[in-house]
Amino acid sequence: MKIWTSEHIFNHPWETVIKAAMQKYPNPMSPSVIGVDVLDRDVDQQGRLHSKRLLTTEWGLPSIVKAIIGSSRTRTYIKEHSVVDTTEKTFELQSTNVTSTNMVSVDERLTYKPHPEDPEKTVLTQEAIISVKGISLSSYLEGIMASTISTNAGKMLYSCKLYCCNSELC
Amino acid sequence: MNSVGEACTELKREYDQCFNSWFSEKFLKGDRSGDPCTETFKKYQRCVQKAIKEKDIPIDGVEFMGPIKDKPES
Fold first, then answer.
1. Where is the PRELI/MSF1 domain (chain A) (predicted)?
2. Residue A38 sits in a domain of what CATH number?
3. Distance from CA of A26 to the nearest CA of B (A)
4. How many other C-beta atoms are found inside a 10 Å radius of the C-beta of residue B54?
5. Cβ-Cβ contacts under 8 Å, A94 against chain B
């Protein structure tokens, strides 16, 4: 099992960042996410917006490999639950893969909050727990996956920043 | 961005447009006066749930790392 955490700061206020984060896909820095669907959405009694989404991701394998093994085996589906609390100014997301679970389990949690010292900035905290199952190289592979998640998080941040700066949200 | 069901992509786009507008212009500004996207969402959902069943995607009963904490009662 591998636990990976990171913290990043956006130079934009919380409302701007979460508008961008809600519309994060598609973006060129995350080509593996090929589909996003909302399964459920409601506002609870405390006025918080809950969303449950299904993300479709495609492994970056060469076309010939996908043709041989079939696209159903190169897709991984991820279920995400998020909560926007405009009173506390938090946007929390949790996600986990619902397929390929016999091979790997990736649980991620993200939290967006205003920077405690500067309301014009937003802090993103990310945490991932990765478990690769049933093989003796699991610790090594977990390390690679944590590194990949870290690289992808950097790309995601870049894409969020790109989105913020290129859209009318800035 | 596409939907999990290819046939649902247009319905998804219609719903996303409605939601993003409501989210930015109403919800984030504290306006809880109602959801204008209910009907659009229902149409979109019927399509998505059918696609999920057809593709046999196991979305029910998934445990996350832990519950997103409930706001304490004031």
1. 1-170
2. 3.30.530.20
3. 5
4. 10
5. 64-65, 68
Residue contact B57–A46, C-beta within 8 A: no
ipTM of the complex: 0.79
DSSP codes, B28-64? GGT--S--TTHHHHHHHHHHHHHHHHHTT---TT---
Structural domains counted in chain A: 1
What's the pTM value of the predicted model, to 2 decimals?
Answer: 0.77
pLDDT in tens, B13-71: 999 999 999 999 999 998 888 789 999 999 999 999 999 888 888 877 544 444 444 43
Per-residue pLDDT reduced to its tens digit, A35-92: 899 999 999 999 999 999 999 887 665 666 656 666 555 678 889 999 999 999 999 9
Phi, psi (rounded to 5 degrees) for B60: -90, 155
- Give me A71's structure tokens: 């696209």
- Token digits for A164? 């913020």
Question: Which residue matches tokens 């996908």?
Answer: A66
**Contact assessment for residue B65 and residue A129, using Cβ atoms and an 8 Å cutoff:** yes
- Beta-strand relationship, A33-43 and A49-58: antiparallel
